Amino acid sequence: MTVVRDRVTTRIASPPMRRRFSPLLIIVIGAAIVVALTYALPPFRTYQLATVGAYLCVTAGLTVLTGLNGQLSLGHGALMATGAYTLALWQNKFNLLAVGIVVAILVTTAVGAVIGLAAARLRGPYLAGLTLAVAVVVPSITSTFDETFNSDQGLSVILNPPPESMTVEQWQAWVCWGGALITVLALALLTRGRFGRDMRAVRDDETAARLAGISIARTQVAAFVVSAACAGLAGALFAVIAQSVSPGAFPLTLSLFLLMAIVIGGLGRLSGALIGAVLLVALPAVAHEIGEAAGSQRLEGNLALTFFGVVLVVVMLAAPGGLASLRIPRRWQFRTKKH
Amino acid sequence: MDRFLFLTFDGLSRGAVYAAFALALVLIWRATRIVNFAQGAMAVATAYVAYSVADATGSYWLGFVVALVAGLLLGAGVERVVMRFVDHSSPLNGVVVALGLVLIIQGVLGMIYGNEFRPAPAPFSRDAFEIGGVALLSRYDLFVFAAVGAVVVLLTLLFTRTPTGLRMRAAAFAPDVSRLLGVPVGGMLTLGWALAAAVGSLAGMLVIPTELGLHPTAMDIVFISAFTAAVLGGLDSPIGSVLGGLLVGLLLSYISGYLGATVAPMAVLALLVVVLLSRPDGLFSRSKARTA
Fold this sequence. Notes:
The structure holds 2 protein chains of 2 kinds. Chain A is mainly alpha-helical. Chain A has helices at 2-13, 23-40, 43-69, 76-93, 97-119, 124-144, 146-149, 168-192, 194-204, 206-211, 216-242, 252-265, 270-294, 297-318, 322-326; strands at 155-156, 244-245. Chain B is mainly alpha-helical. Chain B has helices spanning 2-32, 39-57, 60-81, 91-113, 139-161, 163-173, 175-180, 185-207, 220-233, 238-259, 264-278, and strands spanning 128-131, 134-138. In chain B, strands 1-2 form a two-stranded antiparallel sheet.
């Protein structure tokens, strides 16, 4: 009986695509808005815009994994570190940015596949514990192989100067949002099709999904790999923005921030990923200003930390069904893409 | 051979701490089916309080007692205020809320004490004294063994020999029936959380002087090791978690000693992966399948 009901809700939850806008159109509009903003905003705001774009890559991938497929990952900060370090090593050797980003994505995808293979056999707290271990341990690898990764100091990233007609910030924003929009487009198309249906079916009821002929493990690993690729891209973009990589940039709290972003933004929605990405940039900025106004250095970073924690707990307690109810919104919409 | 012996005792001392910490995780897991991911942060918070008291009064032992009491209060508070209202329909919810607590605690600690390492002196000398020409144990190691041993014995007595322990076990295993029989299930859960947090605080007080010192994230890697220990022993088995803790401690000690300290975190990760993939129910688990 429950199986039947779950199947029904799954079907209701994903109606035939009644789309008013094609995702491509949204992307084109989004790109136009970003380009316009890069000319309208002052340099620092443009830099923040670029950061939002980089965050959007990873939150979009993560919301697909957690919201659509029901796997919780605390390891995406570590996956971002993988992408960032790969790009840094590549750039310092070959200095070909476009190829470097692709290589970073590929390497992170491979790492994600390894974690995903293990993750597909784990549930709930076991999966959370394993990915938490990944998030805590991976930054320490930089000290183990300090000849390659230069320990805590990290590596600087060699980049060619941007074209003369644009500022560094504009160029960063274009690169990051180029990556972000392609990611969102790819995820939107991917989750609309059979793969998206499979993921939702696995999340809602594994037994029913298996009866319907869906391979649980394959779907889960595929979801993890896709979101890992997104994290790798985000990590590479962060390396481009910061022009350096260090283990301190990818602490455990980064992974927790990402989790908070997708939970608050609304699990499983790409529009939620955008809201989350904006929050990830906006809240620390607000906390920074408050800290400066109060003249307290200690306040700056920690205020944002506390605030994120409070929001995360309150959202989880206030949404009566918690993740379970949040993860089945009335309609699955992947067309929303607004600014 | 001398080195091997030294590493063995060092590993057992470390393992005793992991065992206590894993025991705290298992206590909460058995009672509520939640892995308390905030355990490390909670322990650090009480350790900060303890060292503040110790600095103010000049007495380590007063601080030590304050840490345990603060652990009891913090555990009970977290259960009463937050965890009680977590919806259990998805196992992810408890995890996410606990991680939110981690952020809150680390943020508040950073705001009050700052994000630099603060010294955390040990109450006893950590220099090993020699037995037959071989440096084996320090006074501090003996203190660790005694403290953890006492906790294990006391908890065993509590759960097997007292009516309160019986009620706690009943509330954990059959909450509805227990409630019908007049057991205050909510109160038992609060007590369980309080006890677990106090044990976690003890583990924190024992391990922090042996590491770099006080820091809001000081227990992150300890938490991972203890989680590995708990999984190794089976999340449902208190005895398993103690044995798992000792095993993990030994393993990490050998690996740090022979391969270098920086390899140890990766070894924990590797061990966790191997255990989760080969024996996810743990080496000593009695339950036939994990449910969550």
